[in-house]
Write a sequence for this structure.
């Protein structure tokens, strides 16, 4: 069928009835999609993790290995339940499961290697205890999947690590948990890769303070004069250096992990906001109105996302690129029309709607050509959902009524006038699938409509925002995203506040008058007028006396 379709298309292209251009489409590999949600694959992942965990526990001659493995198995089932209950979206995607449990296994393998080095005397025991990368798994998981998953990682690698150390070691468990929590806390606002060094320093300092508190670094015999300061220095360097080296390794590995698991961190989103990107440069030159519109949408979306705890960096970046499809025919969009003549006046409503709707597919094509992030492509596809181009649909209905009236006057059949089908004026979708995509969709509609306000006031802006959001909800455009009504109310309030700051009216300055500077009275002129008024008062006072 594909060969015959291709031959038929080539014939149509030669006759001038078809376009030879092949539009790019996002690659959709059915096999990979099936692997992503397969229950059998998930089971194999868990079995592989348990096999690796068993190998770490049973490696070397140690007492109570069977009890340790049984305890580790119970912890595993607890971790599984926590992931399934509290993070169902992560649990549903096998790639995320591989990332989490693969990172756990690497974390535990490094710890086991250090334990072996300590046992055979390669590393001094008092130093080896402080070299453990307590923050490895929490840092990776927190940076890639979020703080909640990072906390889960800190808890369970601490439990498994404690089992590897001994059956249950309170000091190790406390140090691992607290260091892991510190790692998650200090990575909440990491937006530059260099800030990972600061995070590693904090983790190292936390480990050092805990080691001092638990006596792992022995400085309590200072009064007796027998403290080994060289050993204290080595131990301090090990504790702080371990945190720094772990953070540096994680920072270096993140780009590869992002590419492998199709994830994007806040740091990568900020790197993508570079306005010198070729597409954004073209947009500023060829479609300046769309460029300014995109900047305003980015501001609205970023503020709203910050307010409800969504990914603000993602909203900002995706908003910059959401309308790049308008580069193909920029003059057909209102914000880019440089003359009073509207090119749509010469077109049928269906053709005008087709041009407007096509900017979504053209945007996807350009995004694929420039290898943009898949999340940006999703936003480009979803930011109009399956909404209707109302202006041209209503215009088509009016023309239909006029044509039917003329047909009736000329005694023609009413069926001769073609029916207006709403499907021809509807975007192809899909609906917004995430909070970020829904916020950008609403911000796009709100910002476009706000340009029609002649005298914007807080009340008019609020009415406009509520009207647009209510229409989107009534049209079921937000059915597939995760926005709650409470979050939607917060988004509306954020839009109103941001639009008021963007559209506020300035104070009218007075015209320039004699004795003024730039419309404002100069100090010397004021003093001169006051002096004349005082002299006149002294002259008038005796006459009235």
């Amino acid at each position: 069928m594909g060969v015959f379709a291709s031959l038929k298309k080539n014939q149509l292209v030669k006759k001038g009835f078809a376009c030879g251009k092949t539009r790019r489409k996002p690659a959709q590999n059915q096999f990979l999609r099936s692997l992503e949600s397969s229950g059998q694959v998930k089971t194999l992942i868990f079995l592989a993790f348990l096999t690796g965990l068993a190998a770490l526990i049973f490696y070397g001659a140690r007492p109570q290995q069977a009890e340790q493995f049984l305890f580790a198995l119970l912890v595993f089932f607890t971790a599984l339940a926590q992931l399934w209950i509290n993070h169902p979206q992560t649990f549903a995607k096998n790639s995320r499961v591989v990332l989490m449990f693969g990172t756990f296994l690497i974390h535990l393998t490094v710890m086991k290697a250090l334990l072996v080095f300590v046992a055979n005397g390669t590393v001094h025991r008092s130093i080896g205890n402080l070299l453990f990368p307590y923050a490895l798994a929490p840092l990776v998981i927190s940076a890639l999947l979020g703080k909640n998953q990072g906390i889960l990682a800190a808890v369970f690698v601490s439990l498994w690590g404690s089992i590897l150390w001994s059956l249950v070691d309170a000091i190790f468990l406390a140090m691992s948990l607290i260091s892991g929590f510190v790692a998650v806390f200090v990575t909440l606002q990491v937006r530059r890769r260099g800030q990972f060094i600061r995070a590693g320093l904090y983790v190292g300092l936390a480990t050092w303070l805990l080691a001092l508190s638990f006596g792992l670094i022995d400085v309590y015999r200072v009064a007796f004069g027998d403290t080994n300061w060289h050993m204290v220095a080595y131990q301090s360097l090990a504790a702080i250096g371990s945190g720094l080296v772990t953070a540096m390794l994680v920072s270096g590995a993140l780009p590869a992990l992002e590419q492998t698991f199709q994830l994007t961190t806040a740091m990568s989103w900020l790197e993508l906001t570079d306005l010198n990107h070729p597409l954004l440069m073209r947009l500023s030159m060829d479609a300046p109105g769309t460029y300014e519109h995109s900047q305003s949408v980015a501001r609205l979306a970023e503020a709203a996302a910050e307010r409800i705890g969504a990914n603000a960096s993602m909203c900002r970046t995706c908003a910059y690129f959401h309308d790049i499809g308008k580069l193909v025919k920029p003059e057909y969009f209102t914000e880019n029309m440089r003359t009073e003549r509207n090119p749509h006046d010469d077109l049928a409503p269906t053709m005008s709607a087709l041009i407007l709707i096509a900017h979504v597919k053209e945007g996807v094509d350009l995004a694929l050509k420039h290898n943009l992030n898949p999340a940006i492509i999703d936003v480009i596809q979803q930011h109009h959902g399956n909404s209707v181009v109302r202006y041209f649909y209503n215009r088509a209905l009016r023309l239909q009524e006029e044509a039917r009236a003329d047909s009736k006057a000329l005694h023609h059949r009413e069926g001769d006038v073609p029916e207006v089908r709403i499907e021809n004026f509807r975007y192809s979708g899909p609906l917004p699938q995430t909070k970020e995509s829904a916020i950008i969709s609403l911000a796009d509609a709100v910002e476009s409509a706000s340009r029609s306000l002649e005298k914007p006031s807080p009340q008019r802006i609020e009415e406009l925002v509520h009207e647009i959001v209510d229409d989107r909800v009534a049209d079921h455009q937000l059915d597939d995203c995760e926005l709650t009504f409470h979050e939607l109310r917060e988004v509306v309030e954020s839009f109103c506040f941001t639009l008021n700051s963007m559209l506020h009216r300035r104070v009218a300055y007075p015209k320039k008058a004699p004795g003024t500077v730039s419309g404002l009275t100069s100090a010397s002129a004021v003093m001169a007028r006051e002096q004349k008024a005082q002299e006149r008062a002294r002259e008038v006072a005796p006459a009235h006396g």
